[in-house]
Write a structure and sequence with these properties.
128 residues, alpha/beta, 25% helix
């Protein structure tokens, strides 16, 4: 299976891209998870065509908020990655019918001269 989507950073200057994006990413990590959750909710409200948003949290992890109100935490093992990679993984899992509760996805990141394996552990965040 192959899935494609448009992802934009929250500071994208061309609003046409953001309005068309399936995924909106927070450019800078949130200091705390509660800040990331607030940003996710505000961003989903602002861009009604957006299916999900993602925000890295300083100190580790990425929170991915879904249009239906669910939230998924992606914990990265290996080198740090920006919020776009975990968001793409969650998007692909959901489109492919993969249950994200406890899923572990391993991928190779980097350029040809320096590649490393990264594992993402996904888990739903309880509503609250």
């Amino acid at each position: 299976m192959r899935f494609a989507h448009l992802a934009c950073a929250d500071d994208e200057r061309d609003s046409r891209l953001t309005e068309s994006a399936s995924v909106v990413l927070r450019r800078h990590p949130a200091d705390r998870a509660v800040e990331a959750v607030r940003w996710i909710r505000r961003t989903l409200a602002r861009w009604p065509g957006c299916l999900m948003t993602a925000a890295a949290v300083r100190g580790g992890g990425v929170l991915v908020g879904l249009r239906d109100g669910r939230m998924v935490e992606a914990v990265v093992t290996g080198p740090p990655v920006d919020a776009g990679l975990p968001a793409a993984v969650v998007y692909t899992c959901l489109r492919g019918g993969v249950d994200v509760d406890g899923a572990v996805v391993t991928m190779r990141v980097g350029d040809r001269g320096r590649e490393e394996d990264v594992a993402l552990r996904l888990r739903p965040v309880p509503a609250g």
